[in-house]
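In this section we turn from sequence analysis to structure. A common task in structural bioinformatics is to predict how a protein folds when a small molecule is present, because the ligand can shape the pocket around it. The inputs are simple: the amino acid sequence and a SMILES string for the ligand, here zinc ion. Study the lines below before reading on.
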Amino acid sequence: MKSTRTTMLAAAAASALLLGVGATSAQNAAPAAGETFSKTCRVTQARNNAIQKQEPFKAFDNLYYVGPCYVAVWILTTPQGHIMFDTAQEPFVDDVIANIQKVGINPRDIKYIVLSHGHLDHVGGAARLQEVTGARVVAVAEDWDMIAALDGKVGNRDPKPNRVPKRDMVVKEGDTLKLGDQALTFHQMPGHTPGVLTTEGIKVRDSGQTYTAILMGGGGYRGGLKEAEQSVVTADRVAAIKGVQVNMQIHSWAEPAGYPGGGVLERSFKLKDRKPGDPNPFVDPVTWEARAKAAQAGARRAVETEKAKAAAPK
Ligand SMILES: [Zn+2]
């Protein structure tokens, strides 16, 4: 009996501890002194796992952030199950799973895991999350090939070789996904990788209002004239999508080109401090449109740069 009582006390202490954590759960670790989150998460503390670990937070009534500071992981909830966007990578996956549970979501209720593109920082946790959740894993064919090529290699953050998810749902341009009250449309938008997967038509709710969100699956091009030219087409297609009010950034820091008003973590602080009746800081169509225009100009400059490079004497 004594051991049972000890166990019960230990359990009570553990839940008190959890409650303590829960009380501050909207508060993420601050950036280092004199730095933005962008610099802390992406540059100076990119390898500091203690700093990378972030508390999860609720961005909208039906949208949670559960990722580390380097790379975003979002969960869109519906009464019929949930949709997860990206998985982060090892050694962050235990924290992602803990964060999912901390916001009260049963991992087994996640029905789909949508992979924004095939780079390890976004897909490195997908094998474990596929097993833990039993969800269907969604990606574009070209990036399923990239994911397969990561198998068994050693990544940039963890000494253990990569594990990759079993190739599962292959989606292509214009495919749709319906779950609960969500009807999502997928776009293949190459440039950053061949199979960048952008998700349009995400509906998020706050204070009785519904807003339209987008998750743009990849950032800028990473070199090459073909990729730069693809990025022009992609940037024009992104800019043509009307009615975007919320940008679900795939990295929690502001994009390298800058996102006025801040990235995910800056906005999480504003959200925490908001007064009743204040708008949700993630609703920002003006910044989205400016960003879309800047991406169009940036992609065109990249083509010029690549052409100049090609024309330069060797
Ligand atoms: Zn990438």
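The first helix runs from residue 2 to 23. As an exercise, try to locate the residues that line the zinc ion site and compare them with your own expectations.
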